[in-house]
Each structure stands twice: as C-alpha cells, then as structure tokens.
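Researcher: Here's a chain I'd like modeled. Treat it as a single chain, no partners, no ligands.
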Amino acid sequence: GAKSSQFLKEIQQAALVPEGLKKIKDYAESDSLELPDISEYVAVDTEQLAGEKDLDQDGIVEYNESELLEEIPIQKTAEILKITDIAKSKIISIDNDAMKFFVTFLVHQLWNRAFLREVETVKDVKKERKSKNGFKNEVVSTFLKEYEGTRKLKIPKGYAFDEKPYLMQLYVAYKSTTVKERYFANFSEPGSGKTLSAVLASRIIKSKTTLVLCPNSVLDQWPKVILEIYPDSDIVSGNDVFSVSKTGKRPQFLILNYDKLNQPKSKLKIEKLKKLKIDFVVLDEIQFAKTIQK
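Model: Modeled as a single isolated chain. Structure tokens:
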C-alpha cells in the first residue's frame, strides 16, 4: 500500500540517523506488522542523498525484455555508491551491526540495478574497486563476489523451460546455497519470475522434497509451472500431501495452501509432515497466511 511504499522510500535516509536506524532495527526484530513512522528522521534536503529523486519515480517491473525496462528510471551506480561517503561519516562510530546493515542494503541496491542493466552495472562497480573508502570497498567486493558466484552457477540437468533463467532468478538460486542463516527472502515485484527462482533453487541445493506453502488462489498454478521447468518432478498437492510417507526417487514437490495449516484438525496433519525429511521450504505470498485466534 501507500504506507509501505513511503516507508521504503524513507528507509535509506532514516537509517543514516542513529535514532532512525534504531527504530528500523527494532521493527525488524519485532513481531509487529505495523510499519513504524520514520519520516521525522528524513532530511529535508533530499538532494544530499543520491538517487532519492530516481527512487521516487520507480515503477512496478514486469520482468520482460529490455524494451520495457528502457522506460523505467534507474538509479545510477555512482549514486548508489555515493551513499557510502555519507554513511561512513555518520555510522562508522555506531557498531558493526550498523555497518553490516548498510553493506547489505547497498549491495541489494546494486543488485536491483544489475537486474535491469547488468553489463553496465558490473562495469561501473569494477571501476570502484580501488577506493580509499573501506566501507565502499566492502560493498563493492561483496557485490562482485556474489555476482561472480551467480554467473558461475550451473543449471542442473533436466531444465526444460522455454527461456533461460534471468539474472535475478540465478541470484536467488545462488543465495540459497550461500546464506548462513539458511533462509532468504525474495521480494521482487509480481511477474518477475519468483516461482522459477524457487524451483531452480530447490534443484541447485539438490532438494529431494520441497514443501511449497501458498495462497489457495495459486495452488493450481504451482504444479503447472514446476513441470514446465523440470518435467522430471513428482507433484503432490492439497490434502494428498498429508498421505506422503517417504521421499521418492525423483525430486518431489509438496504443495499446500496456507489454510490447510490453520484449521482445528491441522495439528495432527502437521505432525505427519514433521515425520518427512523436507529439504527446502518455499513460502509464497506469505502475507496471505492467517493465524488462529486462541
């Protein structure tokens, strides 16, 4: 909604202020679904932070080909990295967590640009490798390491989809093999290919059993897409999932809508699931998941 959009536009500036950064981190570590008001920590002079004007104009990307992307204003690489000069002086004395937060945030910004302008972005970033700014060096080296790993990724045998994976889809698959926390969130826009990225990731990590939880509205779409990508997959969906007792010889996908897990008798069904060795879990459109009031 409008509030979410405004929050995302303000987070870059608000996080440069210690009080704003604390409010953002407190929210991230809480269970609250209510976005905090961080507008008071946003500088009036928006020109001092690079790219804010461009960010305000960003639209929804239906991840098709370059002719569509040509119409979308894209933040320049130099503008993204310029934030490191501002952030270094403002947060370097806070703590390591703040530095990690900003490295992750700016690397994410570079990836967003690379998804739309890959060759140009990588070329620009490589030019910044010998900076005297240690903070910038961390951002640049992290992005280039991830990019190299993403591009070296080998597509597992059996891939049958008409189109090769986009850079974003390869990146998500790569991250699934490297994140220490064993979880990764893909908040790409609708139509960007998140389903393919999830299926590809499951094959990259050699998952024998993948559990997909999704809204009921897309329950029937998942089997079709999975088989288009990897026809050698076994699919079980709906209540039949709770009858699965073991892993098959072929990679299998168990597909459930969220509502199957919040019914009065769901606990018994979940106990059955727990007996399976599930290697990979996909939470699709998790905002539609509901909880039962006690």
